[in-house]
Every structure is written in structure tokens, then in C-alpha cells.
Amino acid sequence: MTSRTPDPARRSERSRQAILTAAAELVTELGYARLTIEAIAARAGVGKQTIYRWWPSKGAVVFDALLAGNANEAGSLALPDTGDVAADLRTLLRGTADELASPFLGSAGRALAAEVLTDPKLLDEYRERLLGPLLEVTRQRLRAARTAGQLAADADPDLAVELLYGPMYYRWLHGLGPLDHGYADRLVELVLRALRP
Amino acid sequence: MTSRTPDPARRSERSRQAILTAAAELVTELGYARLTIEAIAARAGVGKQTIYRWWPSKGAVVFDALLAGNANEAGSLALPDTGDVAADLRTLLRGTADELASPFLGSAGRALAAEVLTDPKLLDEYRERLLGPLLEVTRQRLRAARTAGQLAADADPDLAVELLYGPMYYRWLHGLGPLDHGYADRLVELVLRALRP
């Protein structure tokens, strides 16, 4: 009957997953502004103090929840690396376009972006927990391409990630045009023209 | 004594200028959310109805005021055209970097960007009155360079303006790094590599 013996580590991990799932669901349903730690705790079936034991704030748990939604089964954020940087960046930006064009990011995501803009503490948490890891795995993929000779030896990964994500984000924020796979592909083609040897 | 004769057209133009100046000053001092049409009218020395005769909303007068701050003496938005597209784009993006790095856009501008994000009507006014004209003169400058053979014949002006402004805006919004002239120059160099024949 060992499988029925209470296992604190396993129970703890189940609670953590339940909290992340509840946070992801509730930010979609309510938007960031109306979301509360109490509501996350109630849906996850845990006490508020359990959430505060692991996360310092509402922003922290929400960004971890959004990051978990983008992570692989090992729980880490990883980009495809087939060896073909053009194909991999197309996969990446098509996925980003799909997310930005989804109903969730069309409303709750805009509200969250607006709050990040005007709350320096929330921006810090966003950079630390969600944007930073995303940009870092992207830079790693670009460095691998540079090492393989597919990008110029002096290609700057910091500038390159802004060139990849910036135009799409700008189009999304301002509603300048559709975010479809054709757009993602044309953007990748231009960015690679800028970065190739 | 003709110069003292009241001239309705001239008086009207003076009022319009006073309103635009007051709106630009007040949005800097108060931020967009706390700004009112009453406050603009009081500072400009006109009645509220005078403002509403020319502008349908607070957003409309603020965006016209910000556009006027970027216009030349003829009152129109125009980009430099020296014939050297690289030099002209450097001038353009250095100016954009200076504006984004200025104390005004560091606080009031972020608040305005956040409101544009979450208010579809305000976003429409922003696109119509400020962003649209800016993107259009930028596309015109790029089309001229394409005609002159400095850009590829198939360079897409819509995508090109997003490639120019998007990365800098992304860096600014997320506080990813400094917005200085060196950054503007490196960005222009990359974008031109993407767009050249």
C-alpha cells in the first residue's frame, strides 16, 4: 500500500501545479486586474498562505503560470533546435503569432501588458520570471546558429531578439495587421537577411 | 491700424495653437488619465465648447498636440530626405530614441501607451491622428529609397516600418537596455541589411 502513503513532496508538487493551473485559468477568465490570490487559492483548493510560501505576489504566480504553459514536460522552456535556424525561427514566431492572435491575449493579455507598462515592480517580475527566460532561450538558439556559421560572427543576440519579437509585438499592440503564419515567415526571412554572414 | 483690426481667422488659429500647447504641457505635467478638457480650456484661455468644435475627444486633442510637436513649420510631418537613406533613417531613429528616453515619455508616455492598449476607441484615435501619419511618412521615405534603387524592389514598406520602430519600442516598453544614438545606428544598419537589394 505504499502508493497510498502520504508523500509530502508529491503532495506539495500537486499543490504547486494546482495553483499554477488555477492562476492560468483565472487570469484568462477575469483579467489580471480582477484576479486575487484568494480566488487562486479557492480554485486550487489550498490556503492563501500556501501560495505566499512559494510566491511573493500575484504577478509572480501569474507569470510563472504563463511560463509553465509554454514549458515542455521537463518543466523548462526550450526552443526547437533541428539544426535549421530558419525553420526553427519560423516555428517559434508562428507559435508567438498564434498566441498573440488568440482570444485570451486579445483581451486579458492586453490588460496585463498595460499593467506591466505602468507598474515598475510588476515589470521587474515580468522580466525576471517570463520575458527574461524567453529571451534567454532565444538568444541561446541564435548563439548556436552563430557557432554553426549560419549567422554572422558579429551578430548581436541582444539586438537580434528585439528584431525578432519587436515588430510582431508592435503590430499586435497597435492592431496594424493580421498575425498569421505568412507574416511570421516573412518576418523571419527579413531578420535572417539582417543577421546572416 | 489694420494690424489691430480683429481678424477672426487669425484669432481662431491663435486659439487652436494655444489649445495644442496647453494640451502638450498638461499631458506632460498630469499624465493622460488626470488630464481634462476643462484644464486644457482654462490654460489656453478658451471655452470648453471651442475645443469641442475642433476635436471630438480628449484623446484627439492630445494626439494632435503630440503630432504638432513633431511637425515642421509648415505644420506637416516630414522626414529628412537627403538622398542617403541610411543617414536619414539614422536621423529618424536617433530622434525617436531621444523622445522615448526623455523624462516625459518615461512616465506620462508609458501611461498613455497603457491606456491606448486597453481602450479600443483611444487606439483608433491614436492610429488615425498620430501613429498613422508617422508610419505613412516613413513608408513614403522608404518608397523613395526603393525607387532610387537603395532598397530591394520587393521591400515591403508595411513590414519595413514595423522592423524599424518595433524593436526600439519593444526595448523601451520592457526596459531591456539603453536608448541611445549608438543603439539607433546599429538598428538602422541591421534593418537596411534586411531591406537592401
From TrEMBL, chains A, B:
Domain of life: Bacteria
Keyword Zinc-finger: no
Keywords from the UniProt entry: DNA-binding, Transcription, Transcription regulation
Residue intervals of the HTH tetR-type domain: 13-73
DNA-binding region: 36-55
Keyword Transcription in record: yes
Gene3D superfamilies linked: Homeodomain-like, Tetracycline Repressor, domain 2
GO MF annotation, one: transcription cis-regulatory region binding
Name of protein: AcrR family transcriptional regulator
Organism: Kitasatospora gansuensis
